[in-house]
Structures are given as C-alpha cells and as structure tokens.
Amino acid sequence: MERGKMAEAESLETAAEHERILREIESTDTACIGPTLRSVYDGEEHGRFMEKLETRIRNHDREIEKMCNFHYQGFVDSITELLKVRGEAQKLKNQVTDTNRKLQHEGKELVIAMEELKQCRLQQRNISATVDKLMLCLPVLEMYSKLRDQMKTKRHYPALKTLEHLEHTYLPQVSHYRFCKVMVDNIPKLREEIKDVSMSDLKDFLESIRKHSDKIGETAMKQAQQQRNLDNIVLQQPRIGSKRKSKKDAYTIFDTEIESTSPKSEQDSGILDVEDEEDDEEVPGAQDLVDFSPVYRCLHIYSVLGARETFENYYRKQRRKQARLVLQPPSNMHETLDGYRKYFNQIVGFFVVEDHILHTTQGLVNRAYIDELWEMALSKTIAALRTHSSYCSDPNLVLDLKNLIVLFADTLQVYGFPVNQLFDMLLEIRDQYSETLLKKWAGIFRNILDSDNYSPIPVTSEEMYKKVVGQFPFQDIELEKQPFPKKFPFSEFVPKVYNQIKEFIYACLKFSEDLHLSSTEVDDMIRKSTNLLLTRTLSNSLQNVIKRKNIGLTELVQIIINTTHLEKSCKYLEEFITNITNVLPETVHTTKLYGTTTFKDARHAAEEEIYTNLNQKIDQFLQLADYDWMTGDLGNKASDYLVDLIAFLRSTFAVFTHLPGKVAQTACMSACKHLATSLMQLLLEAEVRQLTLGALQQFNLDVRECEQFARSGPVPGFQEDTLQLAFIDLRQLLDLFIQWDWSTYLADYGQPNCKYLRVNPVTALTLLEKMKDTSRKNNMFAQFRKNERDKQKLIDTVAKQLRGLISSHHS
C-alpha cells in the first residue's frame, strides 16, 4: 500500500516536471532549447515525455485549424481585391514604360553631355588633388636634394640638421607615398653615413695632431721664451701692470710655420699652413694653427644623434693612447739637446690642444680628465728625464737641458698645469750637473797642472804685470818696486786655477737661474759645489801631481809656494761669491769655503813628498858608496859619493829660499837625519862582517863632511849646532872607537852628562864584534904578536862588559 502511494507521488512529480519543460519549450527561443531537452534525456521518463509532447502538438494543431476556419472569408475577399488591383497596375506599367521610352529618347543627348561633364569634373578634381599632393611632395624632394648636396660637399652637420627637418617636419605629411617610405627607410643609413664620415674626419684630425704636436709645442715654447724675455725687460723698467700675459694671450702667440702635407690635411686633418712671422709681429694662436672644426662637427653630430657619450669616450680613449705614445721617449734622446727638445715639444703640443678643447667645448674633456693625463705625463716625463739625464756627461748639455726643462715648465704653467715637481726634479739634476762639472774641471785642472812649467812667472813690462795681477789677487809692495824684468813667486797655474774656480762658480750660478730659488739657497748651492771642487777635484789633482814618480824637488817647492798663494786667495773667492749672490758671509747657516784646508793639505803632502824625495835622492847617492872595510890605509879626504851628495843638498836647499822657513828647516833636518840614519845602517849592516880601524877613519872623514855641511847653515833659521845634532849618534860612536875611550864610556854609562850618552851598548857591541873578528885574522902585524894579543884581550873584556850592560839594562 505504501509502495503504491510512493509510486503515485513519483508520477505526479514527473508529470509536473514534464509540464514545466513543455512550457519552457513553448516560451523559449529555439537557440536556447538545448539545455531543456538535455534535462529530458538525462532523466529516466523519456517515453512518457514524448507521449506528453505528442499530446500537446495535437492540441496546438486543433487550435490552428479553428483559427484558420475563423478567418477564411476575409482571406477570399482580400484575394479578389488584389486581382482588381493587378489589372490597374498593368495599365499604369504600360503608361510608365511608354513615358520612359519617350524620356530616354529625348534625354539621350543630355545624358551624353552630362557624362562628358562628369569626366571633365573628375579630371579637374584629379588634377587639383595631384597639384595639392605635388605641393606637399615638392618640399620633401627639395629637402632630400639639399641633403644629398650637403653630403657631397661634406657639410655633415648642416646635412644632419636637414635630415632632422626632413624626418620630423616634411615626411610625416606625405608618409603614405611609396617614395617617402623609401626615404624613411634610408634615413638611418644616411645618419650612419654622416656618423662614419665625421668619425673618419676626426680620426684624420687626431692622426695629424699626433704628427704635428711637436710643431705646436715648439711654437708654444717659443712664445713662452718671448714672454720670458719680455718679462725680463719689464723687470728692468719700472712699470705698473701685469708682467705676464693671460692664458688667452697664450692661445694667440705662436711664431713658427707648421707645414701641411696635402690640401686635405689643411682642411680636414686639423693643421693649417701658416707663413713665417717677423719677431715683432703678433704670432698666430693655437686656433689659428690648428683647425678644430672636425672635432666640433663630430661632437655636434654625435650630440644630435644622441651618442655624445660614445663620442666623448672614443675621443678620450684615443687621446690617452696618443699621450702614451708622446710620453715614450726615444732611446737616444740623451745624445743631443734636439732629442729632448722634440720630446718636450710633443708633450707641450699635446696639452696645448687639450687645453684648447677644454675651453672651447662643453664637456668633451673636463678638468679631472686633463689633471689625470697631466699626472700621468708628469710622472712619466720625470722618470724619463731621470733615466736619460743620468747618461749626460757634458755639463753644457746638462745646462741646456735645465734651461729647456725650465722653458717647458714655464710654458705649461701658463696653461694652468702644476709644475712644482719639475722644479723639484731640477734640484736632483743640479747634483748631477755638479758632478759633471767636477769631472770637467778635473780634466781642466789636470791639463793646467800637466802643462805648467813650475817656474815663477817672468814679466818684462807693466802691461804684463797688470795682466797677471788682474787675473789673480796678488799684492807685494817690494815686488812692485823692483825694476823690470822681474818674477812673480808663483807659476802660471796659480792664476789659471784661480780663474777656473771662478768659472766653476759662474757655471754653478747659471744652473740656479730661473729655478725660483732664494738668494740664500743659491749661495748655499754654489758654496757646497765649490767646496766639492776644492776638497775633492782640485785636491785630487794636486795630490796626483805631487805623487807622480818623475816629479822633481823644484816642482814640489813651486807647488808649495803656489798652494800658499792660493790659500791666501780663498778670502777673495768668498767675496766673489758674496758679490754674485748678495748673501753676506755672516748670514746664519752660510756655508764656509774649505779652500784653506785643501791647499794646506796639498802643501803638507808636497812637503812630505819633498822629504821623501830628498831621502830617496840620498839613498841613491848612498848606493854609490863603495867602502873598503878591510883597508888599513888612512885616508885624507871624504868619499866622492858623499862630496857629490853634499853638493846636491846645497844646490837643493838653495832652491828652498821662497819656501816658508819651517818647511825648509824641516826638509833640511829630515835630510840630515835620514843621512845620519842611513850611514849608521851602512856601518852596522849584517853584510859588513869585518871592518878595520882604517875603514872607520875613512867613514869618520865622511861624517865630518856631513857635520861641516850642517855647520854651514844650508837653510837659515837654525839655532847654533842644532842641525849637527842629527849626526850626534854617529859622532859619539866614531869618537868612542877611534879614540878607544872605553874606560870613560863604561865608567860614565847611565849618567845624564856622560860623554858618550848617545852610544847604545848594543850598537857598540855590534861594531866591536866586527873589529874583533878582523883582529883575529889580521897578519899584517905579526912582529907585534904580543901587542895584538893584548888588544884582543882588551876587546874581549870590553865586549864582556858591554854584554853585562845590555843584560843589566834588559833586567
């Protein structure tokens, strides 16, 4: 029962659903009926829905049939009226056709005329439109033609402006034409062509600038030289105003000819041909010598094209490369001044161009870029100068180089570049210059000393006398009073050396010019260099002359006299330096000249050499001594060699008249002591194993000759018997043996006032041993054998006592 109720309820629901679907189908547009039908097919009551649909269709057919039956009579009446209208319409059609035929016949000519008028109007309209379009196109074509002409004449910047007007103003008005499209497509190519051509001009300009930078620098440095000369003239004449031209003037003063190699290089490469100018005419400036238009054109073109940064980077990169090439010095630059000059000209030319670009363009180069390049150039230039200047051995070349560096620095300083480091480097070169000067003057002094005759300067007239006095500060009232001919005490090398010292001072002063040094610094530099000249160069030259093997006593004596006068002249050299530097010697920290010490040392060396030379001469004479130590004959005169030696000493000391007294006295005393010592050594030498009393007598005659020479006073100034003391050892020894006064010697030995105080027991024993051996082997007095034996015993006794004295002395 319950199942029956449930089935009935489900069928009612299905029937309601089908009814709803049918209503939707009736009221919904057929395009949207798909979802409704799908819901039917998705359900399970498809058959029942179809039955219900068939039922509904039959109901609608019945309603349609009823409605048609209701309106049938009205439809028949309408058809009847329509048939009547058709007949009338046929008549009207015939009338209209007839009327149209007549109208066509009558209006045929009018239609032909109207057609002709239509064609004329159409042509007229076309012509007018064509003229209007041509009027729009003609400016475009004219601008394009103008563009081509500008391209042909290489007027690239106006061509770029024309291209810009053509692209933005004219072409948009006629952009739909095919030829305009061709132009539009060609515009980027034209821009690239302009860009490439302008870049090519810039490259030619850069290459030409690189080749001709030395010419540009040469003109700038000559201008700076002219300006410096003008400043010097202004400094000498009181004048109010600036003494140096402004930087603007620096751009407009140049004075050389820069030649170009071709017409192209004149116009496009950046170098113009300038005729030589007279010195007193205004000289062309950088902008007159160099055509900068390729740079300006290229800069404007790249700026218009929006590639200014690319252009700036390219320009700076290329100029940096050129700077490195310019700063690379040639390997043989140090050989000639022209090598340095060309190197400096290239650097100056490079920076003159860059400075002009800096001040005539807006940002192509900036101060930071210029400063960076200058720092690089400064470091490389200083390094190159240090390297190459170290090879210079000619002081004139070093001085010329210094002047060139100063001119180089002054030129760049005009353009605003800092050059303090260059002047600092010049102080380094100053030391090298001093060294080269010292080497040069070493040769000069050597030549002077080698060519000197070491004889007093003879003068035969007042003119000659004044000439010598003018060369060397010498005053001697006694010499002035003497009649002509007369002689100066010094030789020619004194005034020559003195003048060369002054020339050296002048050479040092030349280097200090234009270095912006104070007078004190210049004075200090000159004094230090002069001290080196005196203490090292001149001193070495004098020492070399003094130490020469073949130098004679006369030359040494003259050297002592010469150095004495040069020593006295040092105060005049001090005054000379003071006069040229205007720095008083009393100023604090003023360096003093060491000339006095130099000449004193040379004089002392000459004195020592005199002593050594005298001793060597004495030794040479002593080598001629030929004593017969075994002779029994008693001689009556001194040995020949000693007579010759004494004669030599007399003549030698006669030359010492102009020497200072102490020098002559020391030389004489030294010679006598050396002679006495040598004679003693000759007497005691080991090779002389035996000697006789006769030989001692001959030796005594020689010593007496020496004492006679000492008593004769060969050199004035000695006190009485002072010179004879040199031979006192020999005299007491010989007196002891010849007088055979052993009892006195042995008795008084050790007492301060003993007669034979200078006789050493060892010396006496040595000589006694030589005589003892002789007595034993001598057979000449055989008949006095007993006396000989007594003497031998005495000798043995004395020898024993001498040995006792020696041993007691040692103990």
TrEMBL record:
InterPro entries: EXOC6/Sec15, EXOC6/Sec15_C, EXOC6/Sec15_C_dom1, EXOC6_Sec15_N, EXOC6PINT-1/Sec15/Tip20_C_dom2
GO terms, biological process: Golgi to plasma membrane transport; intracellular protein transport; vesicle tethering involved in exocytosis
Cellular-component GO terms for this entry: exocyst; plasma membrane
Region described as Disordered: 257-280
Residues forming coiled coils: 82-109
Record domain Exocyst complex component EXOC6/Sec15 N-terminal: where: 52-221
Domain of life: Eukaryota
Gene3D superfamilies in the cross-refs: Dsl1p vesicle tethering complex, Tip20p subunit, domain D, Exocyst complex subunit Sec15 C-terminal domain, N-terminal subdomain
Keyword Endoplasmic reticulum assigned: no
Keywords: Coiled coil, Exocytosis, Transport
Domain Exocyst complex subunit EXOC6/Sec15 C-terminal intervals: 421-770
Recorded family membership: Belongs to the SEC15 family.
Function per UniProt: Component of the exocyst complex involved in the docking of exocytic vesicles with fusion sites on the plasma membrane.
Protein name in the entry: Exocyst complex component
Species of origin: Lynx canadensis
Protein's gene: EXOC6B
